[in-house]
Amino acid sequence: MKRVLLLAVLIAAGACALQAQAVDTTVCDVLKDPASFNGKLVRIKGTVSVGLDQFIVGGTDCGRPVNAIWLAYPDGTKGKTGPDAMLELRPAHNFAGKYTAATRTPIKLEKDKAFKQFDSALAEQHKGNYMCLGCRRYQVSATLVGRLDGVADASLQRDASGKITGLGGFGNMNAYPARLVLQSVSDVTPKEIDYSKDDALTKGITPPSDPPTSGGVFDPLTAARSTATAIGSSQVGITAQKDANVYGKKGENNGVSIGYGRMNEVSDNDGALGSADSPDGVLYNSTFNMNHLEGAALSAAILHVGQHISELRSPSTTDLVEPAILLESNAWAITISAAIYMREKFLMLPGGYVIWNWKWPQADLASNFQTALTTYFAQEGLVNR
């Protein structure tokens, strides 16, 4: 009993010490050396953005491969906002590398009026007459206080055969070297994102109907596989079918899981070794928010994340450490192909970036897509080479 009481006292003392040592910093200063901030309580003024697979505090161009900090709520918050899709890598029971789960001081979130304004604004979707994956109505500038989790290197570590032996980062694809677990928010200023050009471009367009259901029940994974098959036997079609099949057959234990819900919290088993085995020693946990992704959009997102899993599991032999920008670019290329074969006439990204327009000449499709995507990455996605 005394040991249990002593442990409770030590945890409480650690939490008080963390609260007393808040450090004022910036996104770029954190990203210069994330590990030096690990475990510290920090105060950051920044702009928070939410996208298809993003929940981030962005800075100006910090000159890093990922120019943002992943944001998360403490376990049990039940907030409204967060990414619409996410892929989290976790070491399986038979993980090939050495692994020790980090010990972190718990954080309690102040769910006051400022937080509710912050959370509600970031959850509000932009409603357009087109497919727009992860499009929110607002970005929010705010002062954020929370525990900073940081690592020196977020890139996946592999052995000579390409097998993953080290997981480092946070957030989607474990690609972020820093994560802020929110304790409080203040100075909340929502800024509405301008989608007026997109809305004008698509005025009068009737969106296609959602994929047909079987027995009145829509199965997004089945629809995603049907779309991949419909793309055909081209290289893109073969890739899309591979991406759809990474989720495995029903009941198959292939290390890939698919779930539905919100992805805005630090899980109660954060960073712990998985209890199940996986063919390559890594668990690929994909989650989708069906409140924000419906019908064709959900199927497109499933293929998008499937492409991430395909590349992470079987990387090019010439580039075992693929940068986040390459992984994202390839996933969006597959997503566009899916949108086309689902008869979507437009595909937009958060912030109002058109990456597919049915009126583009075939000869201009690749260049227009790449130009829009590069601009999106630099200004909204906050990833570069």
Compose a concise summary of this entry.
The protein is 31% helix and 23% strand. The protein has 385 residues and is an alpha/beta fold. The strands form 4 sheets. Strands 2-3-4-10-7 form a 5-stranded mixed barrel. A 3-stranded mixed β-sheet has the order 5-12-11, with helices on one face.
Question: What do you see in this structure?
Answer:
- The chain has a domain at 21-83 and 103-192: OB fold (Dihydrolipoamide Acetyltransferase, E2P), CATH 2.40.50.
- Strands 2-3-4-10-7 form a 5-stranded mixed barrel. A 3-stranded mixed beta sheet has the order 5-12-11, covered by helices on one side. A 3-stranded mixed beta sheet has the order 6-13-14.
- With 385 residues, it is an alpha/beta fold.
- 31% of the residues lie in helices and 23% in strands.
- Strand 13 (346-349) and strand 14 form a beta hairpin.
Question: What global shape is seen?
Answer: globular
State Rg: 21 Å
- Major β-sheet, in short? 5 strands, mixed, barrel
Report the strand count: 14
Query: What is the residue-averaged pLDDT?
Result: 88
Write the layout of secondary structure elements.
Elements: H1 2-20, E1 23-25, H2 27-32, E2 40-51, E3 54-58, E4 68-72, E5 85-91, H3 113-123, E6 131-132, E7 138-150, E8 157-158, E9 164-166, E10 178-192, H4 196-201, H5 220-231, H6 235-245, E11 256-260, E12 282-288, H7 295-313, H8 324-341, E13 346-349, E14 353-357, H9 365-381
